[in-house]
Specification:
- By secondary structure, the protein is an all-alpha fold.
- The protein has one domain.
- Helix content is 72%, strand content 0%.
- Helix 3 packs antiparallel against helix 4 and helix 3 runs parallel beside helix 5.
- The longest helix is centred in the C-terminal third of the chain and has 40 residues.
- It is elongated.
Length: 221
């Protein structure tokens, strides 16, 4: 009888310990709901090319022609200016002002070549600037202008050259200096102006190439 009571007491003790562990152990979290990942959204391909209107095409073509004429004039002016430099070096022009029989004058070969070369370069610069500016306006209206940094640098240098050419006419048409110094001033300003216009043309050539690449990338006919 005592053995039965002891077994019953042990069973009750195990049952109480099991109930205590069950009460202190937190319940397991419910399983997470499955997440359905939606398929990726496929966007339609964007248009990679823009077809300009007929008016813009006509403006672009006229701008290219204007720029091409200006480039040819700039090259011709540079060639005439180089010819004047060669003549001046070969003839040791201008002669001394003390040479009363043959004093230097604006009508001599050296100044004439310099004047014609500088004037041609100045006109070429103006045509190039207008042609490239027109191209940039067309590309800007289409929203694809590649930038006007090169154009701005070339225009600044070209304006300095244009001003120098104007100064050569001032020295040639006035008599503030003696004949020798007058011709030195004429040659320096005219040849220097042509050189600046030629440098501006180099920047314009880079800018023109960029504009042309952009136009070809967007225009398909």
């Amino acid at each position: 009888m005592r053995a039965l009571a002891a077994m019953l007491a042990v069973a009750l003790a195990f049952d109480a310990a099991a109930q205590e562990r069950t009460a202190t152990t937190p319940p397991l979290p419910p399983p997470a709901p499955s997440v359905t990942i939606p398929p990726p959204v496929v966007l339609p391909p964007l248009p990679l090319r823009i077809r300009p209107a007929a008016e813009e095409i006509g403006r672009w073509q006229r701008a290219r022609i204007l720029e091409a004429v200006g480039t040819l004039l700039s090259i011709a002016g540079t060639g005439l200016s180089l010819a004047s430099v060669i003549y001046i070096a070969a003839a040791h022009y201008p002669a001394s002002s003390n040479d009363l029989l043959n004093p230097p004058a604006p009508s001599d070969t050296g100044p004439v070549l310099a004047y014609v070369g500088a004037s041609t370069s100045a006109v070429g610069f103006v045509l190039q600037a207008n042609g490239l500016g027109w191209q940039h306006r067309v590309l800007d209206r289409l929203g694809v202008d590649p930038g006007r940094g090169m154009f701005a640098v070339g225009t600044t240098i070209g304006l300095l050259g244009f001003t120098s050419v104007g100064a050569s006419y001032f020295f040639g048409l006035t008599s503030h200096l003696d004949p020798h110094d007058q011709q030195v001033a004429v040659l320096a300003t005219s040849i220097g102006g042509a050189a600046l216009c030629a440098i501006a043309g180099l920047f314009y050539a880079i800018d023109s190439s960029r504009n042309k690449k952009v136009w070809k990338a967007l225009a398909t006919f």
